[in-house]
């Protein structure tokens, strides 16, 4: 008798539609690979009359999620509505009902992952979340399985397609931030309210999930120093190119002897680095393990079918376990133990500064003097001619400096009567620092 794994799908939006389409269109292939027939038994959506062009039985589509939760035949509950509530409550109810859960909800896992995985472990069910980070890029599976023999030293990457598209258009075509963002919205790469994308919040959610997985420690978005890209200008893009760099919104989690370094911010990376070549709405994940060395995963980080593909991959994994009588249980992490977090003020790296200053004698000397007083050494300077009567740009690259010293120096500089606007600061990552090994264990707190 053919084994059947019944699935309940909560949310028939963009990703839900892609997931349903793959389950329906690839039913025979998936049955061979899963060891059982994957049956889309029930679908719940706010608009049950809108089937999105899918060949669904209208009698199996409902607006009441209880119809899925209370159905004992449904073994896998797929949450694709996004957001925190009611997703959190519904997922916990599904777990309490003994159902395995698959979700693409990065915000939910970043904020409440520990609670959800603890509940799943107690109930003896699995939580699949490959689609929560990286769309169709299997970065979760790579960390959980492919690199399981490694102590992970660095997780970095371009984790938001909207921000990367905007920066690509600013770099390649000289668009201002507002112009590039408006184009991204027209093309569907950006939401009507793009705050989460351009302010780095979406990226911080993804980094929280990856860091918890890679370093076996609880991490939340509040632990991650986060800056967005909205203050960048074509002038910064141009200056970066003159120094041989490109600017990307980079997420970085690095294993240090003093603790974990967690940050999201615009970053200058060498133009010939693999991450610098990630264009458009693509994502890329840069992983460093003590045994494997450097690994780069690149591909579509969002979208209906790529993300639906990742959701179905989790469903197949769970169905295989059910068919074999040994379903996976609980969460994906080894025992989580708090470790020290390295404060942002302790970061040591190179910096790009762009000052807007009045064109007067001695201005450069005053700025350099304050930097010198704070132990910040200048590596290069570009001072362009007057662009307006108000101010001229002065651009500096530094040698390595401590973040706390940089903040003190810039606070003084921005108070000078010759400085007209707040200083633009961009941190610089070179290949050697991205790939650097920690060479020491992080001691649990």
UniProtKB/TrEMBL annotation:
Pathway involvement of the protein, from the record: Amino-acid biosynthesis; L-methionine biosynthesis via de novo pathway; L-homoserine from L-aspartate: step 3/3; Amino-acid biosynthesis; L-threonine biosynthesis; L-threonine from L-aspartate: step 3/5
Top-rank lineage group of the source organism: Bacteria
Active-site residues (renumbered): 206
Catalysed reactions, semicolon-separated: L-homoserine + NADP(+) = L-aspartate 4-semialdehyde + NADPH + H(+)
Any Pfam family matching the protein: NAD_binding_3
NCBIfam families per UniProt: PRK06349.1 (NF004976)
Protein name listed in UniProt: Homoserine dehydrogenase
Species of origin: Dissulfurirhabdus thermomarina
């Amino acid at each position: 008798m053919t084994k059947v794994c019944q699935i309940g799908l909560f949310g028939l939006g963009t990703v839900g539609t892609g997931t349903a389409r793959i389950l329906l269109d690839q039913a025979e292939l998936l049955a061979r690979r899963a060891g059982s027939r994957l049956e889309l038994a029930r679908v719940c959506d706010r608009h049950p009359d809108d089937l999105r062009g899918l060949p669904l039985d209208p009698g199996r589509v409902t607006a009441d999620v209880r119809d899925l939760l209370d159905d004992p035949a449904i073994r896998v509950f797929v949450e694709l509505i996004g957001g925190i509530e009611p997703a959190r409550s519904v997922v916990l109810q599904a777990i309490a009902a003994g159902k395995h859960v698959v979700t693409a909800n990065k915000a939910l896992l970043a904020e409440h992952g520990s609670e959800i995985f603890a509940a799943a472990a107690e109930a003896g069910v699995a939580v699949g979340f490959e689609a929560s980070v990286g769309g169709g890029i299997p970065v979760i599976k790579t960390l959980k399985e492919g690199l399981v023999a490694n102590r992970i030293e660095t997780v970095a990457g371009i984790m938001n397609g909207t921000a990367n598209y905007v920066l690509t258009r600013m770099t390649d075509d000289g668009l201002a931030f507002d112009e590039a963002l408006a184009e991204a919205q027209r093309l569907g790469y950006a939401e009507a309210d793009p705050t989460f994308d351009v302010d780095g919040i979406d990226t911080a959610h993804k980094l929280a999930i990856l860091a918890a997985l890679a370093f076996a420690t609880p991490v939340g978005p509040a632990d991650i120093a986060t800056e967005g890209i909205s203050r960048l200008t074509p002038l910064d893009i141009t200056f970066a190119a003159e120094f041989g760099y490109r600017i990307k919104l980079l997420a970085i989690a690095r294993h240090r002897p003093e603790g974990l370094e967690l940050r999201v911010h615009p970053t200058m990376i060498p133009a010939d680095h693999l991450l610098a070549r990630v264009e458009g709405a693509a994502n890329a994940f840069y992983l460093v393990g003590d045994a494997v060395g450097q690994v780069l995963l690149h591909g579509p980080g969002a979208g209906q079918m790529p993300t639906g593909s990742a959701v179905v991959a989790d469903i197949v994994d769970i169905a295989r376990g059910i068919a074999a009588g040994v379903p996976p249980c609980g969460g994906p992490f080894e025992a989580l133990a708090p470790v020290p977090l390295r404060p942002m003020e302790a970061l040591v790296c190179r910096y790009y500064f762009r000052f807007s200053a009045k064109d007067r004698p001695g201005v450069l000397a005053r700025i350099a003097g304050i930097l010198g007083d704070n132990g910040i050494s200048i590596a290069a300077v570009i001072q362009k001619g007057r662009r307006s009567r108000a101010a001229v740009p002065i651009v500096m690259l530094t040698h390595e400096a401590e973040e706390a010293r940089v903040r003190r120096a810039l606070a003084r500089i921005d108070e000078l009567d010759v400085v007209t606007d707040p200083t633009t600061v961009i941190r610089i990552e070179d290949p050697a620092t991205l790939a650097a090994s920690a060479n020491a264990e992080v001691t649990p707190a």
